[in-house]
Write a structure and sequence with these properties.
The protein is of the alpha/beta class. The chain has helices at 208-214, 225-229, 236-243, 248-254, 270-275, 282-291, 306-312, 317-329, 338-348, 351-364, 372-388, 398-409, 418-429, 436-476, 485-494, and strands at 13-15, 22-23, 36-38, 45-46, 59-60, 68-69, 82-85, 91-92, 105-108, 114-115, 128-130, 137-138, 151-153, 160-161, 174-177, 183-184, 197-200. Helices cover 35% and strands 9% of the residues. Helix 8 runs parallel beside helix 10 (351-364) and helix 9 runs antiparallel to helix 10. InterPro entries: Ankyrin_rpt-contain_sf (IPR036770), LRR_5 (IPR026906), LRR_dom_sf (IPR032675), Surface_bspA-like (IPR053139).
Length: 511
């Protein structure tokens, strides 16, 4: 493949010949078989729409020396999971990675100067992005609708954030604004309703008008531009938690109980600040709790506990369980309103994480009453309304609706096969007839089927265990017969505690 205009073969793995220095325009356009491409080190450019709609492409390694990534080069590569933009690339063009919905790991190297319009639009799996210091402009709608994006880190050198750059990043919680930023255009952070953990350089010249237009969440608590600029004045522990420095544990160990109860202009304690970040360390949280248990129950100016940010930031399972367990131990101190949390989760986290949170709640608070029917009906109604209005900025996913419905009928909150899950999802998406009771009955039916299958499987397992016990006893005592009542009773007590699901006279079928 020394030179080529396009490739329309069916191979899943392709190695480009070292003599090729440029991938032509639409070279692999719409190839749904391609899984992995090996590019030679001397590739200098990837043409426009070169890999557009290669929906099976999971892996591509972009080497140092690459200079140009054309417009729409990887548009709709919905299986692509990891991308590193080399330092030799100066601009990522228009729509280059738009709708790469599986893209989790994005690394932008120093050397990149401009992120083009819509470059990472609708990359719904991105959680964290670091913008290198060489980038001066983030163009229009570059990261728009990155609905899972929790944290962005900017560096000095960034100058302009253009219109809608982070529009509808509904899960975004943590950003810093360097002093070099002199322009944040309209709607750059619109519909970022969780964007609270914000730090602005003390030397910033943005001004109140630009600040309040860009960060509307601060209007609710009457927080002004100058207050945010001086947010960490005389609060070194807050600053250390925001920066998540390598010496953070040392800073925490030096802190007193009083330090962990101090609040900044947003009412946030150091624990709030840490919980809002995209990087979670269980040992840090354990140490803070050892020093100041009351820090877990402080509320910020929005009325939220650190636990709310732990859940909304989709903290790892072990961190979530730790916070819930600490709340359980202190249940008399503060009431946990899990129903409110679930309603918020529906809009800001994935269905997968919601299931994890429900399972954690059922482990730590097994007796907690949650109005699942009411929550399910409300979530389904909101889902229906947003779709009836043809709202392109939908915040509730059909998988989230299914998880809520599962939770309302099953203590397991994961009660059906993948095939049944897909059927439920399809039913929820039939917007013209979607009805809570109809969908809920489908879930009940499948949950009952699942339950029956579990009983059947458990019965077979129990029968097998009993048979093994009988054989073992007979080998030890050849004179004993299988109809010996003592032997049967011993086998029954030794082999498990699920006798209530074993069919009557099951021993008749064992020999």
């Amino acid at each position: 493949m020394a030179s080529f205009n396009s490739y329309r073969g069916s191979e899943t793995h392709i190695r480009i010949d070292p003599s090729v220095t440029s991938i032509p325009h639409e070279a692999f356009f719409d190839n749904d078989q391609l899984v992995e491409v090996e590019l030679p080190d001397n590739i200098q450019s990837i043409g426009g729409r070169a890999f557009t709609n290669c929906c099976s492409l999971t892996t591509i390694h972009l080497c140092e020396g690459l200079q140009t990534i054309g417009y729409g080069a990887f548009l709709d590569c919905t299986s692509l999971r990891q991308v590193t933009i080399p330092s030799t690339v100066s601009i990522v063009h228009y729509q280059a990675f738009r709708r790469c919905t599986s893209l989790v790991d994005l690394h932008l190297c120093d050397g990149l100067q401009i992120i083009g319009s819509y470059a990472f639009y609708d990359c719904t799996s991105l959680h964290r992005v670091t913008i290198p210091s060489t980038i001066s402009v983030i163009n229009k709608y570059a990261f728009c609708r990155c609905s899972s994006l929790k944290e962005i880190q900017f560096f000095e050198g960034l100058r302009d954030i253009l219109e809608g750059a982070f529009y509808d990043c509904m899960s975004l919680m943590h950003i810093n604004i360097p002093s070099t930023v002199h322009s944040i255009e309209s709607e750059a952070f619109k519909h970022c309703s969780l964007l609270r953990n914000v730090a602005i350089s003390p030397s910033s010249t943005l001004g109140d008008e630009a600040f309040l237009e860009s960060f509307q969440t601060f209007q609710d608590i009457d927080c002004k531009f100058d207050m945010i600029k001086s947010r960490f004045d005389d609060l070194p522990l807050h600053k250390a938690c925001f920066d998540h420095s390598h010496q953070l544990m040392e800073s925490i160990n030096r802190g007193s109980s009083a330090d962990f109860l101090k609040a900044d202009c947003l009412g946030m304690t150091p624990l709030h600040v840490l919980a809002c970040s995209g990087m979670h360390d269980l040992e840090l949280y354990r140490r803070i709790y050892e020093i100041c248990p009351r820090a877990l129950f402080a509320r910020d100016k929005w009325g939220d506990l650190p636990l709310a940010y732990i859940i909304l930031s989709e903290a790892p399972k072990e961190v979530l369980h730790f916070f819930l367990e600490m709340h359980r131990r202190n249940a008399r101190t503060i009431l946990l309103d899990f129903s409110v949390m679930i309603n918020r989760l529906a809009k800001f986290t994935s269905g997968k994480y919601m299931r994890q949170a429900i399972q954690a709640q059922r482990i730590c608070f097994p007796d907690l009453e949650v109005e699942w029917d009411s929550i399910g009906a409300g979530i389904l109604r909101d889902f229906q309304e947003q779709n009836n209005q043809h709202d392109q900025d939908s915040v509730i996913h059909h998988q989230t609706v299914r998880v809520i419905l599962e939770a309302s009928v099953s203590r397991r909150s994961a009660c059906m096969s993948l095939e049944h899950q897909v059927e439920i999802d399809n039913a929820i998406e039939r917007r013209w007839w979607v009805n809570y009771e109809i969908i809920r009955q489908m879930v009940i039916d499948y949950a009952q089927l699942y339950h029956n299958q579990m009983i059947g499987a458990t019965t077979i397992l129990e029968m097998t265990l009993w048979k093994l016990k009988l054989n073992e006893a007979l080998q030890m005592n050849p004179n004993m017969t299988v109809d010996n009542q003592e032997l049967r009773g011993q086998s029954r007590s030794d082999s498990g505690k699920v006798c209530n699901v074993v069919i009557p006279n099951v021993l008749l079928f064992l020999y």
